[in-house]
Amino acid sequence: MKYLLVLVFAMGVDLVPVTVAWPQDGVIDVPFHEVGTRFRLLGALGEPFGKTVTIRGVVIPDPAKEFGPTFLVRQVDGNATQKSLIIQLKCDDELVIGQDYELTGHELGGYQGVPSERMLIVIPAGHGLSYKSEFVVDSVSKIKPITFRPSDFLGRECLFAGIAERVKEGASSEDLIRGDGWTIVYPLGFTDDAVGKLVEIRGRFRPRLGEPATFESLVGARWRLVALNDQINREVELRGIACRLNENAWYLEYRGTSIYVEGLGNQALGIKFKAGDSIVVRGTLTRRRFPRLGENRNVNPENEHREEYVVVDAKTDRSDQLLAEERVFRGRGIEGAFRLPLWAQKGAGGEKRSGVE
User: CB under 8 Å to 302, separation ≥6 — which residues?
Assistant: First the structure.
C-alpha cells in the first residue's frame, strides 16, 4: 500500500498501467482498513471508485493493444474536458471505434502483475506490479459527435483552433479567430503573415456582451501557428511526444507528423525524459533530406532519403501532458468518417487529410 496514492494520481493523467516505483522519502502510507473511512480512492475520472457517473466521449483503438474497448472521455457528468483522459471499458455491448457514446457506470481499480523483485524469477519478460482501473458500463447510448465552444470552459484554461482574421472598420481593425460556430477576439493582434492561416490560442476567455458566440481572450492567452508548412524557417515551440527508433535515433511526434530534433537523444539523457513522454521543443524549423523516419534502415538506405521536418538549434524541456486536441488517435479500425480536429483535417504539415492513417 505504500505506493497507492502515487498510483491514483498517475491514473488521473494517463490510463496506461503505471509500474509501481520503489519507496521514496515523502511517500504517504495509506492503511488499507482506512480506505473508505479516512481516505477514499479517486480513479482516472477524478471521482471516487464505485460512484455512479455519466461520461461522454468517443471509442478509440486501444493504444497498448492489450485491453478491451478504450474510451476518450470528453465530458464527466456534463463537465467538458480537453485532457487526454483515456479509460478502459468493461462493457457487454459491442462498441464501434469512432462512434460517440454516453455511458453510465462506475470506475473500479486494482493491482495486476507481480512485484519487481520476482519478475526475473516468475516472468522474465513480463510486467511488474501495476495499478489498473476500468469503467464498468451499466448503460450505453449513441450520441452525436461532441464539439466544444469556449463557453464550455469559462474560467478554465482551454485550447481552440481556427482561422486568423483581421476585420477592418474604418481606420481601426480587430483580430479574431473564427471556429465552428464561435469567434474569439484577440486584442493583442496577430502578425501580418498569420492572417488567413490556421492558428490556435490557449488561455481563458470571457463572453463579449451583446454578441452571442463571441468571446474575448483574457490576459495571458497565447496564440501560435499550427501547420508546419506555415512555420518553416521560423522560431517554433512544438509540443509533442518523444519517440525513439533506437538508442541513437530520437524524434518528435507532433500531431501525427514525425520531426527530427537535433540532439534530442543527448537531451533525453540530460533532462531525463523517456520515449512516450510529453515534451516541448524550441528552435528553428526547417526541412532537410534524411532517411525516412520509422522505416527499415537496412534496405536500400541510399534510396530511403526524403525531405523531412527538422528542428535545429533545439532546446527541449519536459511538458505537462498533451491535451486531446494536441494528439492524433490512430490505429486499425478508425474509419475515414472519424472526425478530426481542424488542424488534423489538413494535416499538421498543412496537407489535406481525409482520415487517420
Answer: none
